[in-house]
Design a protein that fits this description.
6-stranded antiparallel β-sheet; Uridine Diphospho-n-acetylenolpyruvylglucosamine Reductase, domain 3; alpha+beta
Length: about 450
């Protein structure tokens, strides 16, 4: 193969992978614009060149100077600005001092990542861009897989860096760094080198510059390629598992007052353990919760399979899973420390209205000659001349059997019991008695709903 033929073949492979990534990630059609995060290094410069000259959409550039380095960091920012002028690309540069912006418990890398993505999102908003493109390569994904493996990850972590997540896309994630550098050399496209990438005080740099070369030299020259192949296979498996978990979640969930989310225990027991693990992993991600470790997931599986006895399991600092009477519920932990709302007397005045009791809202209206009944979410009660309702919690009512037998044990302090003229009603208790008892005169039609705890806590 001649040098020219090799160059064309190399270009073709990179362009094919670039196009495949765009089609898979949803930006290839060109019906939008992209903010490219460009550091000036070979990865991001190759990505910018491909976007600018081989993609049909509009490209903007964002460059963040982190304050880690002095003269060379300013040199990189000037280099990016000069390239953008030459290629006629609108560019946004911002200078920050990340070391002084670290939050408690954050590493410099974590603080830099947080501020970098915040800057990119601001730039995308200002430019009106649809996507944010980063220059992560197959090498970066392999390093992430190796890091996750050392930390004790599951299948999801072995999938490496995703090609797309929300508005973030990675156009060169299928390409290796050497391929991109060859492309830049052949096209006489310059780049700058960040000397901090050679510093082995950062563990990722030691993986890149010491551990991987050693493994390729002494173990298998194609170790990184094989790691990427394994990651790709596991990504496909994880996508299948995610799709199935999403489907399972849709039919195992049920409504449960006072709970952030609830699932039918019987449905979970009918599945194999692998599916139940997948379900809770998916639900945690869907709610934006901390992922459970393997040991904590093992403990949870033991509780789920243990039958109908009450149990508690701490998911994270302020959230617990609780088992009771055929349901597993996710709860704010404060429900166990709250005393619940006090008993109250509510005077009914007018023809219709509403009132609050703890986390519950009641809507009411006066009706004439209506059958008295007790339903799940609504009832009609005699009201009497004094038009007075008495409210208290199931826990203080002394009625923990019968009606209250349908109330989860963890909810009794915050679950209402309503009394009027000798009759009582417990919303959503599963007991519907006393229907079609017609009495003349005025009655009170009452509807109850539990206010959504998701909004109070901010859970997605």
């Amino acid at each position: 193969m001649t040098g020219k033929e090799h160059r064309l073949s190399s270009d073709s492979r990179v362009l094919d992978r670039f196009r495949e990534a765009g089609q898979e990630q949803g930006w290839w059609s060109g019906e939008g614009s992209v903010v490219a995060a460009v550091s000036g290094g070979s990865d991001s410069m190759a990505m910018l060149w491909l976007l600018r000259f081989f993609w049909g959409g509009r490209v903007f550039v964002a460059h963040l100077e982190h304050g880690f380095r002095q003269e060379t960091a300013l040199r990189d920012a000037e280099f990016v600005e000069e390239i953008c002028r030459e290629w006629q690309i609108e560019c946004r540069v911002e200078h920050l001092h990340i070391p002084s912006m670290r939050r408690k418990g954050e590493t410099l890398e974590e603080a830099g990542r947080r501020e970098r993505y915040g800057f990119l999102r601001r730039a995308a908003s200002d430019f009106g861009a649809t996507f944010i493109a980063t220059g992560h390569t197959a090498n970066d994904s392999a390093e992430t897989v190796f890091l996750n493996l050392l930390r004790g990850t599951g299948i999801r972590g072995l999938g490496g860096i995703p090609g797309a997540r929300e508005e973030i896309v990675r156009p060169v994630i299928r390409c290796f760094r050497t391929e991109l550098q060859d492309l830049l050399r052949e096209r006489s496209v310059p780049w700058v080198t960040d000397e901090s990438n050679e510093e082995t005080c950062y563990f990722r740099n030691r993986i890149r510059n010491v551990i991987f070369p050693s493994l390729c030299r002494d173990g298998n020259p194609r170790f990184v390629e094989h790691l990427i192949g394994l990651s790709s296979d596991l990504s496909d498996l994880e996508r299948m598992r995610e799709d199935r978990a999403r489907h399972i979640a849709s039919w195992t969930r049920t409504e449960q007052p006072l709970a952030l989310r609830a699932w039918r225990t019987g449905s979970l027991l009918a599945m194999n353990e692998w599916l139940v693990r997948s379900l809770f992993a998916y639900e945690g991600r869907d709610l934006g919760l901390s992922p459970l470790s393997r040991s904590k997931t093992d403990s949870l599986m033991g509780l789920v399979s243990g039958g109908s006895r009450p149990w508690r399991f701490q998911w994270e600092k302020d959230l617990e899973l609780c088992g009771s009477r055929g349901l597993i519920s996710l709860l704010p932990r404060g429900i166990f420390t709250n005393d619940g709302p006090p008993s109250a007397s509510i005077r009914i005045e007018g023809e219709r209205g509403s009132f609050r009791w703890g986390k519950w809202e009641f809507l009411w209206e006066m009706v004439e000659n209506s059958p008295h009944f007790l339903g799940e979410a609504a009832c009609t009660l005699p009201i009497g001349d004094v038009r007075l309702l008495e409210l208290e919690s199931v826990a203080t009512s002394g009625e923990k059997g019968g009606h209250a037998g349908r109330i989860p044990w963890w909810a009794e302090k915050e679950w209402p019991l309503v009394r009027s003229v000798g009759r009582s009603w417990i919303p959503f208790s599963g007991i519907c008695t006393g229907r079609n008892v017609v009495e003349e005169g005025q009655a009170l039609r009452l509807k109850a709903r539990c206010l959504c705890p998701d909004k109070e806590r901010g859970v997605r």
